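ok trying again, last paste got cut off:
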Amino acid sequence: MNTDRRTLLAGLAGLAGLAVLPLLLAGAQADTGSRLTLGIMPFNSALALIKTHQPLRQFLEAQLGTAIDVHTTSDYTSFLRESLAGRYDLLITGPHFAVMSVEKGYVPLVRYRATLQPIFVIRPGSGIEAARDLRGRVVALSSLFSVSSIGGMKWLADKGMQAGRDYRIREYPTHGAAIAAVAVGEADAALTTYTPLQQIPADVRNKVVELPSEIRMPHLMTLAHRRLGDPRIAAIRKALWNFAESPEGQRFFQDTGYQGYEPVSHADLEALTPYVAIVRQQMRLETR
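nice, full thing came through this time. structure:
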């Protein structure tokens, strides 16, 4: 392994280790009052989640007059279990996890306007031009529970290709780490979406290109736990829409590629049924 490759992977592994801790910048300058906990799905390193969501946290604290403590976990499974146990007052989570959280007392507030499309990230000149070219290759995933992983593997399965038989999978802590593994030659392809690709460092992004799938689904959703009560939930929903219209919010959506907020519809939740079923099956296998 050359020095650049070793340094990049070691750095990403170090950042991933931070994800087991609460994001310590949360709530540092807010007024006192009934604090809120915001759980963010660990689709990126803890450091990246802090940086990306700080404008949102600060805006919500100012609008609500309430401190917000931001938390994540080291992996998707832990985050899902803590979400379903109701640990967080607010959630920013994958759409498939959102459906399961609604069943456990959460109220959907908004989703990101961007369409979530699983894509394969590959190196230029790798010879991978279509799904069939992934046969015999190593595909990096952020997690088997990531909706991009589920959607991308379903797309391959619909084309007659099964993990373990036709291609090998290798899990990494985050989308960024999976993409970096491709950039340094650790894996042949990575399953991710356009927004994590936009949020990784430019020097990594410039070493890879995209192979889109045909899967489309609603993007990350923001939810509030019903225990907060209707008036407080309404205030949070209003603050989110105000954020989208603010200069800070417009910069946030431009930088992340999320584009803005949309209401969560019944059709959005229904479209996720096949992916929720896959998550439930994976969870059953994990507990055997």
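cool. The chain has two domains: 18-115+218-286, 119-212. The first helix runs from residue 3 to 17.
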